[in-house]
Amino acid sequence: MSNETNHHVSDETNADVRVEERRKIHRQRTFKAGTIAFNRAGGIDCRVRNLSLAGACLEVASLIGIPDEFTLAIDSDHLRKPCRVIWRKATRIGVSFAA
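^ thats the sequence. predicted structure below, dont judge the formating
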């Protein structure tokens, strides 16, 4: 009889771990209101799901109309950061902050 413990991890969890391993900077989980601003027009509301010095994961109602580059505004943090979209999935987008 072995003392080994079997650990069953879903494919989704494994995918999350792989994404985390590629990141050079740890992202802090958040649930902040944000605005995707572009073209001096209003903006698209979003929810900031995680945040680091290098980028963020944003949750939106729809990906339609969101450009590849925009400014992310988080009023509660008095933050405005130029962003570039790195990936898009269903209702979430990953962005890196421009230098």
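The longest strand covers residues 79-89.
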